[in-house]
Please model this.
Amino acid sequence: MKVEQIYTGCLAQGAYYIESDGEAAIIDPLREVNTYLTKAQKNAATIKYIFETHFHADFVSGHLELSQKTNAPIIYGPNANPAFQSIIATDGQEFQLGKIKIKVLHTPGHTMESACYLLFDENGKEYCIFTGDTLFIGDVGRPDLAQKSDLTTHDLAGHLFDSLQNKILPLPNHIIVYPAHGAGSACGKNMSKETFDTLGHQKQVNYALQPQTKEAFIEAVTEGLTPPPYYFPKNVQINKTGSASLETVMESGLRALSPAAFEAAANETGAVVIDTRAAAEFKDAFIPNSINIGLKGDFAPWVGTLITDIQQPILFVATAGTEQEVITRLSRVGYDNILGYLEGGLEAWQAAGKEIDSITSIAAETFAKKFQNENLVVKDVRKTTEFEPEHLADAENIPLAYISENMADFSKTETNYVHCAGGYRSMIACSILKSRGFDNVVNVEGGIGAIKTFLPVSAMASSY
Model:
């Protein structure tokens, strides 16, 4: 028996490859299905089943393409209503895979079709459980993503409580919990950086598994929920109806455009220009009105959060050799309308005599000295949950995810000093502000982590 977690850090997502006696199953596959096909081929195994724990909101699944290439059926839990052929399993239904079996546990709450898959080893003993977004390490799935007119967040949280109490907690402590996500995913509030654990340990440390009333549980899991990213409902719909193959998206998006053709495409289509280079490169020279979302970071989730139209035409600037990676990551969250990339990168743009822009960026130490001696306008673009425990005194919190709705909170006359935790998000914010006509922005390198090393404790504050 083989159980392998295939973890994708930029999405904080775990897919799973399970194999026994020449037969394999994939749980929650990503869109780039060749990973699973290659693994099965290398092991001389046949992919027999494709299990989906629910209709995912944070990424486009590869279930349909994988099924088409393997003839393996797609399996959902009860209540699923996909627009394509699949097996809608019943609660408790078992599927044989080589010498092991996988049992469906219907666990509504995160969504109404959510299911966990309990794996029994060759000896018929419970070995592990694939919990999807029902149970995370240190957390549970948020219950506000599948609301309908007759189903509130409170209702879904109540269903989740019942699922945990009746389906998960009675299971033996030794089994391994394999969730669909880890820290960084927007599908939960406070997930651990660990990507698996024993159920016994989770019963000890996970707040959602502690003895409590249903009302106390509902209050705990619904407290502090922020609106989900814009692309979540779009991804759910794509996963219900199907999407183009990654090969098709790659073929259309992998177009090298000369500076003249790139500029013409931007002007003619109204495409957003995403510059995927590192902040340190971007700040010195970039195409005016382009947005910096660095590839080496939570690239896809931030694209999905900040570009609200999933059909928005996209042009991109990339470090040479990363073009395919950019398209792959965009496709993971359903942004398929990619028109091409700038051939030769920014060097070619400058060589063609095209206009460039820049952003002032200062070291944390320089900022700290100014902060102590001047009355600065400081904007902290971290999440509220990061800001509240510790922040610079008098800094204003404007989370990056909501920057478009809060443009009026940035000063039009004084310099806006923008920082985050480490510098990735603050450069995104500065590029957005620049594109909206704010020339009075300064990025603080290294974020709060670097800034506070140069300041006395008295310069810090807490909202508690």
In short: The first helix runs from residue 34 to 42. The chain has a mean pLDDT of 95.
